[in-house]
């Protein structure tokens, strides 16, 4: 039975935190459990003489928030589908900016659950974004701007509409390993052979199952098995298919529609959350809470560190101007100012 409640979290924050972090036995980084307890509640190791507290080197380091506020955010993120920034801010009485930072941090820690390397992988790509909900005039303008119609007569074909819709959308890649765990990867700009090559090199993949797309062919050092969907063949010669990927995309689109105000800048963080939900679907709620709590109690990373991680992890095809990105983030409304290389950008009021 799931015994956690808000009242329980507030009353037993100290016990719960230590239970998640150390299994109720405070331990030093060197592995020793022989500790002095200081007056202010911190610990001193008898072996290496290091002084530390129960929040040092975790998600709650350098934070003025109380432990129950962090525990509540972790509890909500591990049990609900998702929560909006405004709602979380009301529940734990913090500002919207603080709630935004908290959720951003937790979504980063969810990526630690992913695998980094795999020999065998099922790969497929998909496109998500708002083309169906756009007005006709906006679609017409977009197609005119990006050359998807005749420049003089302004006529277009059905295939040109399809090409424009996939050009406007964001591209994501689903990679599933032999243990049925998945990673969702956001690709900025257009998808092509070089991008796929770099991803396969990063994960060290040697055996690929894919559909008939030419993106996955001719990659040195890999065996590629393909099934031909256009000829209505859903299985490869060895009897495997790409349907697990389609399943993950169905999940992704359902949860993604539930999230409001996602941006392309932070899309990788939202995908982390969705992949975490899918991979831990079969576990009980208590186990999911424990898993996420343990991930959040690992190494400390600052808010700026997450932005840097996104830049390193993103796979960019077209060069994106960083200043343009920053101004977009300010328009988004959750951030008032951003410091970038000694320049301070402020939101216009
Ligand atoms: Zn020690």
Would you mind describing this structure in some detail?
The radius of gyration is 23 Å and the shape is globular. It has a six-stranded mixed sheet. It has a three-stranded antiparallel sheet with strand order 1-2-3, with no helix packed on it. A two-stranded antiparallel sheet has the order 10-11. Helix 3 (67-79) packs across helix 11 (285-296), helix 4 (85-91) crosses helix 5 and helix 5 crosses helix 10 (267-279). The protein has 349 residues and is of the alpha/beta class. The longest helix has 16 residues, at 243-258. It has 13 helices and eleven strands. The chain binds zinc ion (ZN). Zinc ion (ZN) is lined by residues 28, 30, 32, 45, 47-48, 50. Residues 28, 30, 32, 45, 47-48, 50 line the site of zinc ion (ZN).
Architecture of the largest domain, CATH level 2?
2-Layer Sandwich
Going across the biggest sheet, name each strand in turn. Answer: 8-7-4-5-6-9
Count every beta strand, where a strand is a DSSP E run of 2 or more residues: 11
Radius of gyration: 23 Å
Global structural class: alpha/beta
Helix and strand pattern: HHEEEHHHEHHEEHEEHHHHEHEE
Query: Could you name the CATH homologous superfamily of the largest domain?
Result: Ribonuclease H-like superfamily/Ribonuclease H
Count of domain modules: 3
| Relative helix content | 40-55%
Describe the main β-sheet briefly: 6 strands, mixed
Instruction: Supply the CATH class of the largest domain.
Output: Alpha Beta
Beta-strand residue fraction: 5-15%
Tally of alpha and pi helices: 13
């Amino acid at each position: 039975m799931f015994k956690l409640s808000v009242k329980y979290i507030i009353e037993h924050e100290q016990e719960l935190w230590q239970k998640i972090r150390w299994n109720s036995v405070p331990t030093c980084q060197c592995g020793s459990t022989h500790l002095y307890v200081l007056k202010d509640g911190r610990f001193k190791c008898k072996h290496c003489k290091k002084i530390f507290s129960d929040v040092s080197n975790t998600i709650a380091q350098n934070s003025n928030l109380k432990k129950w506020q962090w525990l509540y955010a972790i509890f909500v993120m591990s049990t609900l589908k998702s929560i909006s920034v405004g709602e979380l801010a009301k529940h734990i009485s913090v500002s919207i900016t603080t709630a935004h930072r908290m959720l951003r941090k937790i979504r980063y820690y969810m990526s630690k659950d992913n695998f980094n390397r795999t020999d065998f992988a099922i790969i497929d790509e998909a496109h998500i974004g708002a083309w169906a909900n756009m007005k006709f005039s906006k679609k017409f303008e977009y197609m005119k701007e990006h050359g998807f119609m005749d420049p003089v007569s302004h006529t277009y074909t059905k295939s040109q509409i399809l090409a424009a819709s996939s050009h406007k959308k964001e591209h994501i890649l689903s990679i599933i390993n032999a243990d049925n765990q998945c990673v969702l990867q956001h690709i900025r700009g257009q998808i092509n052979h070089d991008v796929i090559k770099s991803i396969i090199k990063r994960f060290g993949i040697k055996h690929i199952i894919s559909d008939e797309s030419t993106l996955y062919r001719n990659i040195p050092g890999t065996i590629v098995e393909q099934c031909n969907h256009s000829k209505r063949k859903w299985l490869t010669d060895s009897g495997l298919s790409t349907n697990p990927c389609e399943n993950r995309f169905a999940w992704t689109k359902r949860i993604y529609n539930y999230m409001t105000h996602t941006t392309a800048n932070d899309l990788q963080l939202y995908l982390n959350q969705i992949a975490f939900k899918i991979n831990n679907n079969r576990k009980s709620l208590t186990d999911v809470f424990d898993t996420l709590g343990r991930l959040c109690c690992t190494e400390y990373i600052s808010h700026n560190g997450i932005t840097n991680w996104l830049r390193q992890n993103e796979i960019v095809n077209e060069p994106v101007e960083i200043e343009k990105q920053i101004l977009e983030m300010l328009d988004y409304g959750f951030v008032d100012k951003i410091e970038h290389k000694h320049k301070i950008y402020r939101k216009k009021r």
